[in-house]
């Protein structure tokens, strides 16, 4: 089953005017100069699907200048089903609905809106901080593992409370330990899910790298954790670490401290990979994300490619489009270069100018 956006209506989001787009089920090309709203359009699509900005923006930053509220409505088709997503933001609140109702479980919402986005900041997947790589895993898992989103939220609440006690003037060991069972329960479950996912991502990333003219055998991905995967052993490890935690005034053990180590030719990629290799590795990770989502859920996500002409050379761009075509995934591409249209001859073309999106 292939998921496709059939309609997007946006108002008050970033620099976009009131925008209504009915994209082609297969390929869509959005052409315009820098600063006209192309990235904001993709950000709006992905935000509805993930409830997070891939640019790291806050709620206030997403709301357009001079407006009180931003809103988006997106209709997604898949097989014989259709779902309507609505998100409304103001300076203090966010309202979310799926088919007119508040979604009861995270996996129902995120799973029905599975999309993958590749954008210039994805170089940081390889070169940036560990939280970006952890977020890649979590982005996939909330869509395919029932209860994973709830586990992340419960873990984050317990971690915040435990750290607050550790930062108090006279932290009570019993008050600290009171949060350990919850951290152990949810933390160990998160780590087990991430470890299993990393094992799936590796062959998918290697295959994707080969497809875009990068030697897949040179790529390796491994999840690194100091925490046990068994809940009871995890709780005991927290108890042993209490002196170190009190000294640092924070919880040192857990999935919030883990990393995904990406290597190229046996060495850490951020240290040895060239700019072009780094881009290709990041793209391979995103294609692996798409492949794992498809394999796990039976749904092919749609793919958003931001500013592709500046991120990839012509050969890799051609090979990328060929791979996407073989998957029959819906494609959204933004570019400043009209020549990209020659690589997508069947794509529906849109022009983006001054926050407006017009067909043709």
General description of the model:
With 360 residues, this protein is of the alpha/beta class. It has two domains: 1-114 and 303-360, Rossmann fold (3-Layer(aba) Sandwich), CATH 3.40.50; 121-298, Glutathione S-transferase Yfyf (Class Pi), Chain A, domain 2 (Up-down Bundle), CATH 1.20.1050. It has 14 helices and 14 strands. Strands 7-11-12-3-13-14 form a six-stranded mixed β-sheet, sandwiched between helices. The model has no long low-confidence stretch (mean pLDDT 93).
How are the elements arranged and paired?
Elements: E1 3-11, E2 19-21, E3 27-31, H1 38-50, H2 59-62, E4 70-78, E5 81-89, E6 94-98, H3 106-111, E7 115-118, H4 123-127, H5 130-144, H6 148-166, H7 173-177, H8 180-211, E8 219-224, H9 231-240, H10 242-248, E9 259-264, E10 267-268, H11 269-272, H12 275-297, E11 302-305, H13 308-311, H14 314-327, E12 331-335, E13 348-353, E14 356-359
Parallel strand pairs: 3-12, 3-13, 7-11, 11-12
Antiparallel strand pairs: 1-2, 1-4, 4-5, 5-6, 8-9, 9-10, 13-14
Helix pairs in contact: 5-8, 5-12, 6-8, 8-9, 8-12
Outline:
With 360 residues, the chain is α/β, with parallel strands linked by helices. The chain contains 14 helices and 14 strands.
CATH class of the largest domain: Mainly Alpha
Ranges where pLDDT stays below 50 over 5 or more residues in a row are: none
Q: Roughly what percent helix?
A: 40-55%
CATH fold type of the largest domain: Glutathione S-transferase Yfyf (Class Pi), Chain A, domain 2
What proportion strand? Answer: 15-25%
Number of helices: 14
Structural class: alpha/beta
């Amino acid at each position: 089953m292939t998921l496709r956006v059939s309609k997007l209506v946006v108002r008050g989001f970033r620099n976009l005017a009131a925008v209504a787009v009915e994209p082609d089920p297969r390929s869509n090309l959005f052409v315009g100069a820098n600063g006209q709203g192309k990235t904001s359009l993709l950000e709006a699509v992905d935000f509805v699907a993930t409830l997070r900005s891939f640019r790291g923006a806050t709620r206030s930053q997403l709301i357009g200048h001079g407006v009180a509220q931003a809103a988006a409505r997106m209709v997604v088709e898949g097989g014989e089903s259709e779902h309507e997503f609505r998100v409304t933001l103001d300076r203090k609140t966010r309202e979310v609905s799926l088919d007119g109702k508040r979604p009861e479980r995270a996996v129902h919402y995120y799973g029905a809106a599975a999309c993958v986005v590749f954008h210039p900041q994805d170089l940081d997947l390889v070169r940036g901080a560990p939280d970006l790589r952890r977020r890649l895993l979590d982005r996939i898992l909330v869509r395919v593992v029932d209860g994973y989103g709830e586990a992340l939220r419960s873990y984050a609440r317990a971690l915040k409370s435990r750290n607050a006690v550790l930062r108090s003037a006279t932290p009570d060991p019993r008050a600290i330990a009171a949060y350990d069972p919850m951290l152990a329960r949810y933390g160990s479950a998160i780590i087990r899910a991430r470890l299993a996912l990393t094992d799936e991502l590796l062959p998918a990333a290697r295959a994707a790298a080969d497809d875009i003219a990068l030697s897949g055998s040179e790529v390796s991905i491994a999840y690194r954790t100091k925490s046990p995967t068994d809940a009871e052993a995890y709780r005991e490890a927290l108890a042993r670490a209490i002196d170190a935690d009190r000294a640092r005034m924070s919880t040192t053990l857990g999935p919030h401290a883990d990393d995904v180590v990406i290597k190229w030719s046996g060495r850490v990629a951020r240290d040895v990979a060239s700019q072009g290799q780094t881009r290709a590795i990041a793209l391979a990770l995103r294609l692996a994300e798409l492949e794992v989502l498809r394999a796990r859920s039976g749904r092919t996500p749609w793919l958003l490619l931001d500013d592709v002409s500046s991120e990839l050379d012509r050969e890799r761009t051609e090979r990328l489009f060929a791979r996407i075509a073989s998957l029959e995934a819906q494609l959204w591409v933004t570019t400043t270069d009209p020549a990209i249209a020659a690589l997508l001859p069947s794509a529906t073309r849109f022009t983006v100018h001054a926050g407006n999106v017009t067909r043709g």
